[in-house]
Amino acid sequence: MPSLRSCVPKAEAMRELTNHSLDLCSKIKTFQQESYELQDQITDLQKQRLDLKCLTHEDGRVEEGASVAEKYRNILQKGQSHLEKYQKMATITQNILRGIIIASEVNWRDDDPKLRDITMTL
């Protein structure tokens, strides 16, 4: 039977690892929220672009609308690149967190309900 002194450092290390994992999970959730917000912005821009396209065809002001449409297209591309960037970051962070949880051999199903909830969202 291991002595109490040998268990304390292990417990402290597990606690630190769990806290680090929780921090990573909160960062993932932040990135996901930013991703959702960017996606909403992209959707709004796409709607505006469609409305603008309809207006330019109806009024015959294709040249004037082309510069505005180009502006919206550039904004849309920028938003999509940001979205892809944050999705990749979130995926990488999720994979790292999964690896940490698996490598730490933490019993995430029974020990900590908060850790279980976070793990289940990965």
From TrEMBL:
Keywords: Centromere, Chromosome, Kinetochore, Nucleus. Residues 9-121 form the Centromere protein H C-terminal domain. GO terms for biological process: chromosome segregation; kinetochore assembly; mitotic spindle organization. One of its GO terms (cellular component) is nucleus. It holds the Pfam family CENP-H. Coiled coil: none annotated. The keyword Nucleus applies. It is found in: Chromosome, Centromere, Kinetochore; Nucleus. GO terms for molecular function: kinetochore binding. PANTHER family: CENTROMERE PROTEIN H (PTHR48122:SF1). This is Centromere protein H C-terminal domain-containing protein. It comes from Salmo trutta (Brown trout). The lineage of its organism: Eukaryota, Metazoa, Chordata, Craniata, Vertebrata.
